[in-house]
Write a structure and sequence with these properties.
CATH superfamily: Endonuclease/exonuclease/phosphatase
Distance between the termini: 13 Å
Shape: globular
Radius of gyration: 17 Å
Number of strands: 13
Number of domains: 1
Number of helices: 6
Strand content: 25-35%
Structural class: alpha+beta
Largest sheet: 7 strands, mixed
Length: 268
């Protein structure tokens, strides 16, 4: 089963690229971030025509997350628990019925996440980022207790290690690379989650290239889009990769898809 995450940076502006990539890559489940539309404005027809079910948690003009799935949703939960006053559309969870290689039925949980950017450092925006990461940590710890395959996929807005930036020294003043942000990311790992891409390679791999200053052409990238796997998902990991070629398409997002393949099958 192939699961992907992609910050699409405006789904209505990128719908042709999204449909082309879905046809080319053929993921079973896709987590989208920054759809930048309310639920009713999501361009679902072309996606549903490819056999995907669509669930969204949208917001006008910015933020917004979605899950596209060839499997039917058993459950859908928008919003991250822990702050009823937080109206940002940054989280949606789907639950799916799957079976393993021995035919045993399991529940697969997939969350699409769009963590706050946090800039400028030293402002309420950075404090909000850290509070959001604390809420995610509590939610993740609760979900681990289910002992089910869980994939937390999305734009974490965190550069975990120096190898995850072409020029890490350029990011020392940025919220994405602050010690507090990176420590919060490490706490997720310490709960028992595996960074899927880092499980298969130690090489420099990037998922984001800014539109400015020829960043793509110079390969001046960073890795901020991650798929974090629970132990039950990590045990079934067969492949992880970044599909960077889509960054060279016309009208691209500044992010590219990252994917994992797990040894799981639809239940039916």
């Amino acid at each position: 089963m192939k699961i992907a995450t992609w910050n699409i940076n405006g789904v209505r502006a990128r719908i042709e690229n999204l449909v082309a990539w879905l046809k080319e890559s053929g993921p079973d489940i896709v987590c989208l971030q920054e759809i930048k539309t309310q639920d009713e404005g999501f361009p679902r027809a072309g996606i549903e025509a490819l056999g995907y079910h669509v669930e969204t948690h949208g917001q006008k003009g910015f933020n917004g997350v979605a899950i596209l799935s060839k499997l039917r949703f058993d459950e859908v939960t928008p919003r991250l628990a822990g702050d009823d006053a937080d109206e940002h559309a940054r989280f949606i969870e789907g639950v799916f019925s799957v079976r393993d290689a021995k035919g045993r039925r399991l529940a697969l949980r997939v969350a699409s996440l769009y963590l706050p950017n946090g800039n400028p450092v030293g402002t309420e925006k950075f404090a909000y980022k850290l509070r959001w990461m604390q809420r995610l940590e509590r939610w993740a710890a609760d979900r681990l207790a289910f002992e089910e395959p869980l994939v937390m996929a999305g734009d974490y807005n965190v550069i975990p290690e120096p190898v995850d930036a072409r020029f890490p020294e350029n990011w020392t003043g940025d919220a994405l690379y602050q010690p507090e942000s990176r420590e919060a990311f490490r706490r997720l790992s310490a709960l028992g989650f595996t960074d899927a891409v880092r499980a298969v390679t130690d090489a420099p791999v990037y998922t984001f290239w800014d539109y400015q200053a020829g960043a793509w052409q110079k390969n001046n990238g960073i890795r901020i889009d991650h798929l974090m796997l629970s132990p039950e998902a990590a045990d079934r990991l067969s492949r992880a990769a970044v599909e960077k070629h889509v960054r060279a398409w016309e009208k691209p997002s500044d992010h590219v898809p990252a994917i994992v393949e797990l040894a799981l099958l639809p239940a039916s």
